[in-house]
């Protein structure tokens, strides 16, 4: 399948932290796989990085980072970055707090090429994605390092499977383009449509599937032109009144030409059922093997695109979405969608406020996907297990409201009957007005999306 691609925003390419490839004539050290970190050293740092990050080099002096054997672990772990912007943002090179440390790691920001648009758009003073001047790390190398970090970044012990390194695919970037249609499934296309300067545009478009039998979805692809805040697939609850049922294949804007809400177009939203979506410019999500999302016969999807144009020019919004389907005979577990939405928000002007909300489950759930949704005042979004043997365990964190991480849990997170999830979200309301729940990016939200199955 063709890879999804996004455009590189070539800004701020000062090499504040540099990971150069090893010189071809450098004698290679023997591979040491006695621990996960020794494998990272011999298979990644020694091969890709120490051409620059070696004692005495100008790059090592500038970045204050040496990655040669015997020095690299102490240089990386529990150490502040030599980058003023990253330091001000509260990052460390690599921490030892597991999942939380992944999203506070300057190392991870610098090497995670799959999040390249976020890196260059939101962090213009972080320098360049590494290795500098060479190919990005492979997806296998990135996942191997990611596993090491989320398992506490130990110097000794094996915490990641070496077979991950067999994945030699890597991120490739180009401009926004149409997705190829799925071999089995449905393709959707919105736009192109105008988004006015310094304004939000959020619209809906109902697309009947004309399916005479139930269908099962096991893969979702989304590709959006630059400037998108989100794209979501919804269905409707059966209780949707016929009097407000949307017309087929007609764009419904939430705001009129003066920026006022269109009340009739708001009414159907309270009957929405989340199917899938993302804030990432591109997404290609595969459900776990044997798991698929069921859509009943004679259903339709309400396509929701939200663009937030902060520029002084009109931009063009456009979205492609693919839903891949599989035969019912291949489905072992039917996926259910998780949507925990706290609309009871009051954020006083000029204050930092932390909001907590706990959701209890009346059945055992196997959660295999989590991602957050909030707006521009959110600074910290955390999810903890509530109750049971894992009470208080952090299972999700996002420090980025625009491109929150999509956490894939394999094996799934098991939440027993009578247990739940606690959301703890911090907002910095730097405005001179109080804030509450709202649809615009200048309002706020507190939503945890995800997917799970039951016994």
Derived from helix and strand composition plus strand pairing, the structural class reads alpha+beta
Strand content: 25-35%
What is the residue-averaged pLDDT? 87
Order of helices and strands: HHHHHHHHEEEEEHEEEEEEEEEEEEEEE
Q: DSSP helix count?
A: 9
Fraction in helix: 10-25%
How far apart the termini lie comes to 32 Å
Give a short synopsis of this structure:
The protein has 455 residues and is an alpha+beta fold. It has helices spanning 36-49, 58-63, 72-76, 84-88, 99-102, 106-111, 116-122, 139-150, 263-266, and strands spanning 185-195, 199-208, 215-224, 228-236, 251-253, 272-278, 282-286, 291-295, 300-309, 315-326, 333-341, 346-347, 351-360, 365-373, 378-386, 394-398, 407-415, 420-429, 435-436, 447-453. Residues 1-27 have low confidence and may be disordered.
């Amino acid at each position: 399948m063709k890879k999804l691609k996004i455009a590189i925003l070539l800004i701020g390419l000062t090499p504040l932290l540099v990971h150069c490839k090893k010189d071809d004539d450098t004698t290679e050290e023997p591979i040491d796989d006695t621990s996960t970190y020794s494998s990272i050293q011999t298979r990644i740092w020694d091969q890709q990085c120490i051409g620059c990050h070696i004692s005495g080099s100008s790059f090592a002096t500038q970045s204050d980072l040496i990655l040669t054997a015997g020095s690299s672990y102490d240089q990386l772990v529990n150490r502040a970055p030599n980058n003023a912007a990253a330091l001000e943002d509260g990052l460390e090179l690599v921490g030892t707090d597991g999942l939380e440390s992944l999203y506070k790691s300057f190392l991870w920001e610098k090497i995670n090429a799959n999040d390249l648009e976020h890196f260059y758009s939101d962090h213009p003073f972080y320098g360049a994605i590494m290795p500098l001047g060479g190919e990005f790390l492979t997806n296998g190398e990135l996942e191997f390092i990611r596993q090491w970090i989320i398992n506490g970044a130990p110097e000794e012990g094996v915490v990641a499977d070496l077979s991950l390194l067999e994945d030699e695919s890597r991120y490739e970037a180009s401009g926004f383009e149409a997705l190829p249609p799925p071999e089995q499934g449905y393709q959707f296309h919105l736009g192109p449509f105008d988004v006015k300067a310094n304004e939000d545009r959020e619209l809906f478009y109902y697309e009947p599937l004309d399916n005479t039998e139930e269908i099962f979805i096991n893969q979702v692809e989304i590709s959006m032109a630059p400037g998108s805040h989100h794209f979501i697939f919804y269905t409707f609850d059966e209780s949707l009144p016929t009097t407000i049922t949307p017309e087929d294949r007609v764009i419904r804007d939430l705001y009129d030409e003066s920026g006022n809400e269109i009340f009739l177009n708001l009414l159907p939203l309270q009957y929405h059922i989340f199917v899938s979506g993302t804030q990432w410019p591109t997404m290609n999500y595969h459900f776990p093997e044997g798991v698929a999302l069921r859509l009943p016969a004679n259903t339709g999807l309400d396509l929701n695109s939200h663009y937030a144009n902060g520029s002084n020019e009109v931009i063009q919004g456009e979205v492609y979405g693919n839903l891949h389907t599989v035969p019912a005979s291949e489905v072992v577990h039917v996926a259910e969608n998780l949507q925990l939405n706290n609309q009871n928000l009051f954020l006083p002007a000029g204050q930092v406020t932390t909001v907590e909300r706990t959701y209890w489950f009346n059945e055992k759930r196997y959660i295999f996907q989590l991602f957050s949704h909030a707006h521009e005042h959110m600074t910290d979004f955390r999810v903890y297990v509530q109750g049971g043997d894992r009470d208080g365990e952090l299972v999700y964190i996002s420090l980025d409201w625009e491109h929150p991480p999509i956490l894939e849990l394999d094996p799934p997170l098991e939440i027993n009957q009578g247990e739940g999830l606690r959301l703890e979200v911090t907002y910095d309301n730097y405005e001179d007005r109080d804030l509450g729940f709202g649809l615009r990016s200048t309002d706020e939200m507190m939503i945890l999306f995800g997917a799970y199955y039951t016994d």
